[in-house]
Amino acid sequence: MTQKRINSDEDDESIGLVNGKSRREECSWSCGLAQFLDDLSGAVGYKLLVLLFFVQHVGRGFVSDFTSQADPYVYKTYSVPAPVVQIFSGITQLPWALKPIIGLLSDSFPIGGYHKFPYMCISVVAGTIALLVVGAMPHDLLPVPLLVTCLFLMQSQLSVCDILSEAKYAEKIQELPAYGPHVLSYVWFGMNIGSLLGMSLSGLVLAVASPKLPYLISALPAALIMIPLLLGFLEEKEVSADEAAEARRRISLQPEAIFLSLLMCAVCVGLTVTGLITSNTYINAAAATAVFFLVGVAFTVLLSPTVAKFNLWSLLQTSMTLSTSGASFYFMTDTPEQYPEGPHFSPFFYNSVIGTVGALMSLAGIITFQRYMVGFEYRNLLLVTNIAYCLLNATDALLYSRFNQTVGIPDHVFVIGTGVVQNIMNQWQWLPQVIILSYFCPKGMEATMYALLAGCHNLGNTIASCWGALLLQSLGVTPSGAVGESDRFDNLWKASVVASCLPIITVVALFQFIPAVRQGDRVVDPHATATKGSLWKRFWGVDDDDPAGACFTKPAFEPKAA
Fold this sequence. Notes:
- By secondary structure, the protein is mostly helical.
- The longest helix has 32 residues, at 144-175.
- Helix 1 crosses helix 2 and helix 4 runs antiparallel to helix 21 (446-474).
- It has helices at 33-44, 46-68, 71-77, 82-92, 99-108, 117-136, 144-175, 180-208, 213-223, 226-230, 241-252, 255-277, 281-302, 305-320, 325-333, 347-373, 378-394, 396-400, 403-406, 411-438, 446-474, 492-501, 504-513, 535-540; strands at residues 14-16, 22-24.
- The protein is built from 24 helices and two strands.
């Protein structure tokens, strides 16, 4: 099948699609789900949609949330203190920051002539085995370090498949910019449907069985990702040795991207080793701080100004959103013997009810975003959503201080009420960033560049976990599920206030770092390198128009002759 030419005439509202079908450009879910999917499959092909269904909807949606809901319960069986839980959680999320090295390897070193297929297959096998180990191995034979390693491998499967499928649909978005928001809406809507199913079932399973059972159940759907891969739905063209060499040559012309990928790999390994060797929150927070400045400076210096500014803002945003989830889990789920004053939420309510409501509201956020917000400017939308998100998160302090009980609002009602708006706002805040990342990927390096930008964003989550662990430790918020630990929650509300106020920093920085363009518009030239006009190139006087792409012609300044 050949792709029809897209009519660029602004007065023509139709877009040429695969198989010669024609649809109106502005047709979205308002035309109906069936019409939306028909338009989308006509534009990008049904095989890509099927692939995204298994990778994103089943993998990142169902498997990820079905197992992640069990993670804190498994840690609780080992009596791991809340700050240490956050350190371990940060480690297991690092595969999402390792995306750059995966993208670089995929783009540079095809296996058997294919860039994506072999890497995805290897990750699926490793992830499935890890799920079986956690789900089937007796508790006494599974020490905490091995548990964390298996959780790391599970996330590695999701991360590898995610970034390589993202690179695939990033290629389509580059070809069809007008369909960028629609592709992302399909991905995230389906992902939230899978998440809804996973969260709904997790509470039922955890209420009646071991917290290890969700991992055992998830092994099968995790392995199902092999189906579209083996059926060739990646639609990869086998590359020859000469083509692979040419691809490596093109990538070698962007040494900055290679350096950043290796840097991301190094800092992730460093944080992982630090977290496994010591659970000292001060040491882990110090390591996270060093990584924050090292990565932030490196990306800012080596990437083109527009890309560098957004990337720095994205890293700042995630890093400033300090996590207190380790303590909040114990706060919510401790029994009357452990925390007499607590909410005492059952596994069913905490996972199935709260999780289901959250997933439904996330879907509502995606639908409303797709229908009403795809034409907004990135800057305006992110400004409003970040301010609102800070204010909404501040309400958690009312729950932790038990103020809601003082004014007569039941815990169940308060948690669901605040969670409704928080989940909608979270989607409005995140989706524009996913869209803009796709426009920062130069042709020929989609996987590597998307991985660098998304990986840097995800690295901020681990940094936030380490900083949050230090915050909890400093305030004495160290519950572990022990009997009579009420005093360990006295300062949790203070930690929540601090964590809610810090993201204001990103709001202040937003005007200088986010481009004032509308969604769907190109942000940078897709044919230009991602390092064009960077501080590094400007300092060394690199000619971006040089055929070699990285020719050091002369320094920006030259010393006078003696």
